[in-house]
Amino acid sequence: MASGRVDGTRRLVYLGLGSNLGDRDAQLRRALAELESPKLRLLRTSGIYETEPVGFRDQGWFLNLVGEFETELFPKQLLARMQRVERAMGRERTVKNGPRVIDIDILLYGTSVIRAEELEVPHPRYRERRFTLAPLAELAPEMRDPVTGRTMAEMLGALKGQTARRRSAE
């Protein structure tokens, strides 16, 4: 699936989800359920990773996963849907990189490269973060970044530091 297209109208997208407040497992499950619609269908998820905070470090550890979806939504429509789910779940943006009930990011939208004021895809920092690369490499190790051409496995292998422990299946 080199083009990132599922068919003529649907794209393969990868969304990163994270939570470090409340029942983190339940927050992730709820977000995945609320994201799904006829135009945004969950195909599979990575395992759940427990990860140390990046940036603002004085907070609890996160649970993170990546969901692989197929969508008919355009990128800005997808962003709006994700932001509605975040707001409905009580997400408040008060401290940059601070604690959150839920965080949902578009990591990859097919092979598209998008540079707009409100949206940048691929996510501008996903290549630097173990909490996105570890689950992406689990789902699609040979998938290539549309900007650098490197595979998810290559980028993960080159990343230094940052703890991300995959939780065992329960």
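The above is record 1. Record 2 follows with the same two-line structure.
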Amino acid sequence: MPTGKVKWYDAEKGFGFLSQESGPDVYVRAEALPEGTTTVKAGTKVEFGIAQGRRGDQALQVRIIDAPASVARSQSAARRRKPEDMAPIVEDLIRVLDGIGEAYRHGRHPDAKAAKPVAKLLRALADELEL
């Protein structure tokens, strides 16, 4: 059976594409996913059969080999910070985002060196807010 990774999958539309380790991308429909699976994340390792469909190769009987690690922390393992500790973090992040907004207002994308750490900070704040 061929193996590969989920290139992208849209649960609302019920289809996506798998990247084969050797070969062209393969179309995948919701019906080919394992029973009870409604969506798969990009990067998930899968094994699948292939049939020739109307528009090319189509995946059959997808089996999930290894799902990528989630960036979300489990609520039981996470500790919520005190509000007085979070206030300065949020205020500092707002100042940083103002600088990025300024670049956009001037028709530029933010510098990649600056954008990557800001993205990490936003993900960390999102984790904190979700607790």
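Residues 83-130 form one domain.
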